[in-house]
């Protein structure tokens, strides 16, 4: 219900849009003209000179200057790269795909993405032999480094969005630095490194790269009028919607709005509310085109975000922090900033990795407001008070200092590097490094926490683009005779949710999927959905998905992920097996990788995690909500006002000492078999 900030007031006014031609598009500006208008264009000769002179260069320029889309093209046109390719990393897959599509389009002459310009993200490779400019996620470049430590395929590596300080970019700093040094020492083709950033403490970074050259490119910015809420709001989502309508009532139709929220669910629900409310005949204002932008979105929807709305229609884009610096949308005059972001946080002392909605940093707040002033003067509404802003951290903590390190630790080990001896820009704490190595040891990837060699199991684990816990599940599956099922569950967990829960049809959706429910919990329920999907003929899939509220595109993606993981299993000489209806086999197999994610019922609805004895509850979205299985494994911890476990499978507590004896001994787990 929207009762705050006068949204009800808006609803009382009469409508005024009758004579608007909603279908003629705004005139298109020629792409090449657009390129020439970018701030970076005037500096291109100077930039090329600098890139030729220096092997390492830091480029600093405002978001929207043209760094990501233009610099690779300038380098290419200047023939700096001769035979090699250019790699450009992006922290997010959506950004990698979207900029690759844009650059391919700018190249023109009917060239599609995957030709000269391509991208590579986890489970999706859109490149060919012809590809010279390759956008990839930082995680993918790190994977490539395992196969080719000197990155010889590339002449230029551009680490973009360096200010985001993702764990993979931080590790890549060290990897490319070393690759560059060795290539020079061995008289191999030199490696050019370019670090690009929208903001950053560059002295620190430049020092790390042996005091390399830094170039600042002045952007074009216009003043942004700032508004803060008078008092703090506890429901930022509702406040965002009502603020939108406050703007909508008076702003000219071609003034577009960008709203920052934290994740898919929140964004879809906000989009739904706006779509419903604009249809209300009492709501005043022009027609609205609502676009959403979040991770793993279909590319067709992504394209819509960048397309101008028809004349007389207002566009509102609701986005995660991806629109902060990774992609630029033109036409934005208003920004509404919830002040929140969802991020992964790991507490080495509690051993828990949490997906948590938290306050952004002041730096992020400035980046967000800057999106309103790219083309002319704009406005930014902050859904927090001035004093709340003052309390925000100046900068966000680098991910490497707050994330679980076991994936990266195993990848570095595959490169023959022990994390303790790695040349980090900012070192993670010893405590979290130790935790990661302990976990790898428990998973059987290493013999000892100080060894730099992987066991043969560990070597296989490092071949999967997965958290080591999940690769361990797959590698145990032969033993339990359930590879088919384990592949399905791990693929489902590596993709976006296949379940659709439209806010207006929640009950209906749950009823339609009732028949898939497994008494063993969420993972096995998803397995049931997938199994039935596979039995449906290709022609009936669409109807079936529609009837059961299943996300067709996401389930097809799961299928794709599954077949790629299956390939890797084959390369690891796994036999392939199915457990049919013997679900104990599969549950044991899941436990073999997830024994560190076990919680037991403590008292009324409360679950205690075995690892660090944290008190948690079952998430309302779980199959088990309202039930109280004795012992469960979980795949996600979500913290809102309380701590919730999400993605559950019930297990038999006796299995724990059988499957993970060392762990069980050391954690002094309550349930040990009576003997
Ligand atoms: P930077 O990396 O400096 O933030 P970009 O190179 O990403 O800048 O963007 C330059 C310009 O290209 C942006 O202002 C935007 O208008 C345009 N642009 C970038 N990506 C897209 C896209 N996918 N669709 C349409 N326009 C885009
Ligand atoms: Mg960029």
UniProtKB/TrEMBL annotation:
InterPro entries: DEAD-box_helicase_OB_fold, DEAD/DEAH_box_helicase_dom, HA2_WH, Helicase-assoc_dom, Helicase_ATP-bd, Helicase_C-like, P-loop_NTPase. It catalyses: ATP + H2O = ADP + phosphate + H(+). Its EC number is 3.6.4.13. Residues 243-416 form the Helicase C-terminal domain. One of its GO terms (molecular function) is ATP binding. GO terms for cellular component: nucleolus. GO terms for biological process: positive regulation of transcription by RNA polymerase I. The keyword S-adenosyl-L-methionine does not apply. It holds the Pfam family WHD_HA2. It is an enzyme of class 3 (hydrolase). This is RNA helicase. It comes from Rhynchophorus ferrugineus.
């Amino acid at each position: 219900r929207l009762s705050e900030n006068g949204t009800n007031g808006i609803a009382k006014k009469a409508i005024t849009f009758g004579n608007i031609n909603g279908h003629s598009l705004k005139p298109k500006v020629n792409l090449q003209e657009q390129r020439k208008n970018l701030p970076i264009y005037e500096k291109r000769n100077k930039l090329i000179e600098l890139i030729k002179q220096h092997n390492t260069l830091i480029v600093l320029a405002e978001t929207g200057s043209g760094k990501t889309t233009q610099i690779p093209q300038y380098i290419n046109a200047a023939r700096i790269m001769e035979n090699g390719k250019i790699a450009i990393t992006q922290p997010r897959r959506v950004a990698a795909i979207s900029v690759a599509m844009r650059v391919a389009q700018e190249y023109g002459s009917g060239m599609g993405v995957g030709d000269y310009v391509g991208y590579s993200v986890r489970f999706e490779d859109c490149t060919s032999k012809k590809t010279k400019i390759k956008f990839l996620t930082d995680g993918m470049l790190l994977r490539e480094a395992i196969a080719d430590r000197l990155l010889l395929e590339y002449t230029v590596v551009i680490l973009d969005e360096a200010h985001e300080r993702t764990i993979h970019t931080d590790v890549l700093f060290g990897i490319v630095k070393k690759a560059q040094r060795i290539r020079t020492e061995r008289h191999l083709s030199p490696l050019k490194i370019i670090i690009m950033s929208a903001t950053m403490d560059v002295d620190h970074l430049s020092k790390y790269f042996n005091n390399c050259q830094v170039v600042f490119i002045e952007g074009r910015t216009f003043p942004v009028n700032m508004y803060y809420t008078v008092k703090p709001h506890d429901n930022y989502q509702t406040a965002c919607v009502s603020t939108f309508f406050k703007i909508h009532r008076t702003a000219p139709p071609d003034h577009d709005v960008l709203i920052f929220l934290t994740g898919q669910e929140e964004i879809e629900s906000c989009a739904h509310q706006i779509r419903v409310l604009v249809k209300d005949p009492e709501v005043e204002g022009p027609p609205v085109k609502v676009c959403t932008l979040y991770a793993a979105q279909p590319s067709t929807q992504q394209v819509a975000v960048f397309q101008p709305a028809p004349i007389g229609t207002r566009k509102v884009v609701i986005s995660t922090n991806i629109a902060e610096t990774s992609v630029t949308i033109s036409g934005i005059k208003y920004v509404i900033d919830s002040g929140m972001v969802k991020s992964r946080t790991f507490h080495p002392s509690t051993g828990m990795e949490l997906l948590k909605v938290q306050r952004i940093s002041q730096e992020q707040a400035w980046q967000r407001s800057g999106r309103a002033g790219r083309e002319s003067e704009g406005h930014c509404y902050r859904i927090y008070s001035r004093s709340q802003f003052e309390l925000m951290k100046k900068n966000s903590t680098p991910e490497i200092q707050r994330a679980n390190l076991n994936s990266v630790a195993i990848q570095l080990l595959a490169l023959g590097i022990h994390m303790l001896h790695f040349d980090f820009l900012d070192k993670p704490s010893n405590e979290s490094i130790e935790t990661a190595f302990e976990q790898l040891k428990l998973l059987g990837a290493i013999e000892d926490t100080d060894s730099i060699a992987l066991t043969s199991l560990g070597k296989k684990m490092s071949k999967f683009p997965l958290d080591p816990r999940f690769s361990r599940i797959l590698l145990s599956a032969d033993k339990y005779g359930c590879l088919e099922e384990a592949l399905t569950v791990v693929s489902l967990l590596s993709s976006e949710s296949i379940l659709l829960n439209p806010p207006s049809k929640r009950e209906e959706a749950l009823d339609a999927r009732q028949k898939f429910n497994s008494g063993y919990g969420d993972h096995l329920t998803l397995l049931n959905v997938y199994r039935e999907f596979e039995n449906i003929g290709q022609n009936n899939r669409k109807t079936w998905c529609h009837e059961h509220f299943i996300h067709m595109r996401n389930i097809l993606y799961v299928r794709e992920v599954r077949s790629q993981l299956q390939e890797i299993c084959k390369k690891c000489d796994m036999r392939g097996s199915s457990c049919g209806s013997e679900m104990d086999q599969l549950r044991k197999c899941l436990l073999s990788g997830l024994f560190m994610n076990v919680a037991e019922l403590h008292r009324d609805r409360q679950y205690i995690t075995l690892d660090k004895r944290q008190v948690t509850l079952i998430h309302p979205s779980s199959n088990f909500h309202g039930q109280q299985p004795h012992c469960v494994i979980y795949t996600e911890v979500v913290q809102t006002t309380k701590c919730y476990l999400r993605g559950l499978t019930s297990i038999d507590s006796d299995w724990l000492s059988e499957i993970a004896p060392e762990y069980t001994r050391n954690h002094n787990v309550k349930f040990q078999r009576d003997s």
